[in-house]
């Protein structure tokens, strides 16, 4: 089971790496842009958790996104220590362009799986993750 999950994950990652290279993004950068589009104002720690990387790795990813002008981060906050991060207009544009390439990969990966089986597969994957998760 584990081998097959890893094999599928590696195939997906390879295809995404190739497609995202054309948009000058890495998979972790793309993941951060997606999360920030869904939930503007996340912190470094939130993005690290959401993209399954360490905070240190997230900081490297975010630095690259900032340097490219794709995100902005507040320099201070009224509450707590976390500084909210947001997409810039350029970040929105880059995400939109890259998203169609990623969605095409996902569609290619599952196109031969009937919808009813796809629903069950997604539920089973969630169940497996929950069984091993924190």
Automatic annotation (TrEMBL):
GO MF terms held by the record: DNA binding; DNA-binding transcription factor activity
GO BP, one annotated term: response to stress
Keywords tagged on the record: DNA-binding
Keyword Glycoprotein set for record: no
InterPro entries hit by this protein: HTH_MarR-typ (IPR000835), MarR/SlyA-like (IPR039422), WH-like_DNA-bd_sf (IPR036388), WH_DNA-bd_sf (IPR036390)
Superkingdom of the organism of origin: Bacteria
Stretches assigned to the HTH marR-type domain: 1-130
Record-linked SUPFAM superfamilies: Winged helix' DNA-binding domain
PANTHER family: HTH-TYPE TRANSCRIPTIONAL REPRESSOR YETL, TRANSCRIPTIONAL REGULATOR, MARR FAMILY
Protein's recorded name: DNA-binding transcriptional regulator, MarR family
Species: Streptomyces radiopugnans
């Amino acid at each position: 089971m584990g081998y097959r999950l890893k094999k599928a994950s590696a195939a997906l990652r390879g295809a995404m790496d190739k497609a995202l290279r054309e948009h000058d993004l890495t998979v972790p950068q793309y993941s951060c842009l997606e999360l920030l589009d869904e939930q503007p104002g996340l912190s470094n720690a939130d993005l690290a958790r959401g993209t399954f990387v360490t905070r240190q790795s997230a900081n490297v990813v975010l630095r690259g996104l900032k340097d490219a002008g794709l995100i902005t981060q507040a320099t201070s906050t009224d509450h707590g220590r976390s500084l909210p991060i947001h997409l810039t207009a350029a970040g929105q544009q880059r995400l939109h362009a890259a998203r169609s390439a990623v969605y095409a990969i996902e569609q290619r990966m599952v196109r031969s799986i009937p919808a009813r089986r796809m629903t069950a597969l997604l539920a089973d994957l969630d169940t497996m993750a929950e069984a091993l998760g924190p």
